[in-house]
Specification:
By secondary structure, this protein is α/β, with parallel strands linked by helices. It has 13 helices and 17 strands. Helix 8 packs parallel to helix 9 and helix 12 runs parallel beside helix 13. The chain binds S-adenosyl-L-homocysteine and iron/sulfur cluster (SF4). S-adenosyl-L-homocysteine binds next to strand 11.
Length: 429
């Protein structure tokens, strides 16, 4: 979501005569788009601002801005830590940028943070400066209503708001015309898509069906799915639509039902297992990835073991992992007496990562000997040879050599070797 927001910010700025520079130190305007999902991400943002603040001492005309979730969360307090900042704007204020930029150009100190979105018109969505050449991000729903007890997102991104399907389909058509080969639909919980358009039968499944009709050789992905919100109709739509990748990212967070309840996740371990088996039965080569948190407040060693066992039993293809990080405004952030020590959290995280590496390798090995259709994303040179870096529909990274192929090409590749994080193969001619 941040990547997508950054593309929109870059797009708006380019309308105002700004160009992106490759050399950070030479910029006239520096904006950091921040994430506050964990303390580490927020700390990184402030340390970057510290470096920029030093530059401003010798170049007072340099303008510095901060946006994203840290800005939304800390508001004016950002200036207590970094008083030299010219511009602070929140997650709801991106479309105010044209006005805000004029204000800072006139040497005003600006802080634009609202709790409800500053409405954009449809044209605003067209000014996007894409950073990638093959994949384009399309936000379909913003915000979240779930209030998982550990998570700051509902506080920094607000309540769920879906974009109209006509608007999304038009944006996708433009993107495909521009030559992009993949679109990724984004949302904190894509399964909630359309629920705010009551009674109109606007769902993710129907949106996929609509997008699948767009002509052209491209593929469609969507992230993130909420386990208990995945409907049979969505699974049917993924099966029906040839352009939709057979890949699901379904964060489980914990393999223990008591911890899931403490997290305010609306499913049990058994329900999560049912969803995974339903999807695996339908799509043989599907990849299912997940997110897990180690060391949630009060988590016992046995409860943590349930997470390790779940990863094994479910044969998950890959998981994002994190040690629990207390967040402001959240319920779990107030469970201070149940907080685990840093040692315990990081020791569990290490075991979680070890398990992840183990199942990833196992998952990759299943594909040796199989043929996967991949999309070439980039090229690298190694020992005088050109290696094509590509991604299969199920999100597996595949490296291969083929002098006749280029970035943006779809290729059938026979997998010859598996490593923990990637596959190697040979093109089928
Ligand atoms: N909407 C998605 C997740 C968005 S946040 C979902 O419901 O799954 C991305 C991931 O960050 C989460 O899945 C979770 O694993 C992790 N995360 C969120 N808050 C966290 C916290 N306080 N500490 C550690 N990890 C956290
Ligand atoms: Fe955060 Fe839960 Fe919403 Fe995901 S579903 S963004 S984890 S509150």
């Amino acid at each position: 979501m941040n990547k997508s927001d950054s593309e929109r910010i870059a797009g708006i700025l380019s309308e105002f005569g700004y160009e992106q520079t490759e050399i950070e130190k030479e910029a006239d305007l520096l904006i950091i788009n921040t994430c506050s999902i964990r303390q580490l991400s927020a700390d990184k943002a402030y340390s970057k601002l510290g470096v920029w603040g030093k530059w401003k001492k010798t170049r007072p005309e340099l303008k510095i801005g901060i946006c994203g979730c840290v800005a939304q969360q800390d508001k004016e307090k950002v200036r207590q830590r970094a008083p030299y900042i010219d511009l602070v704007f929140g997650t709801h204020n991106i479309y105010e940028l044209p006005t805000l930029i004029k204000q800072i150009e006139e040497d005003e100190k600006v802080c634009a943070i609202t709790n409800t979105p500053v409405v954009c018109n449809q044209n605003d969505f067209k000014i996007i400066r894409k950073q990638d050449t093959v994949n384009a991000w399309i936000p379909i729903i913003e915000g979240c209503n779930n209030f998982c007890t550990y998570c700051v997102v509902p506080f920094t991104r607000g309540r769920e708001r879906s974009r109209r399907p006509e608007e999304i389909i038009q944006e996708a058509k433009n993107i495909i015309k521009e030559g992009f080969k993949e679109i990724t639909l984004l949302g904190q919980n894509v399964d909630s898509y359309g629920k705010d358009f009551k009674g109109e039968n606007i769902t993710l499944a129907n949106l996929l069906r609509g997008l699948n009709k767009i002509e052209g050789n491209f593929r469609i992905r969507f992230v993130t799915s909420y386990p208990s919100d995945i409907t049979d109709d969505l699974i049917d739509a993924v099966e029906e639509c040839d352009k939709v990748c057979k890949y699901f990212h379904i964060p489980m967070q914990s393999g223990n039902s008591h911890i899931l309840e403490e997290m305010n996740r609306h499913y049990t371990k058994a329900q999560y297992y049912q969803i995974v088996s339903k999807i695996r039965n339908r799509f043989p080569d599907v990849a299912i990835t997940s997110d897990f948190i180690a060391g949630f407040p009060g988590e016992t060693e046995e409860e943590f073991q349930d997470t390790l066992n779940a990863i094994d039993e479910l044969e998950l293809d890959y998981s994002n992992t994190a040690a629990y990080s207390p967040r402001v405004f959240t319920k779990a952030g107030k469970m201070v007496d149940k907080f685990l020590s840093e040692e315990i959290k990081y020791e569990r995280l290490e075991r979680l990562n070890e398990k992840n590496r183990e199942v990833c390798l196992k998952s990759n090995e299943k594909f040796v000997g199989k043929v996967l259709n991949v999309l070439v994303e980039s090229k690298t040179e190694k020992d005088g040879k050109v290696i094509l870096n590509s991604r299969a529909g199920n999100n597996k990274i595949v490296h291969f050599e083929d002098e006749t192929k280029n970035i943006g090409d779809f290729v059938d590749v026979k997998i010859t070797k598996a490593q923990t994080w990637c596959l190697y193969g040979e093109p089928i001619r």
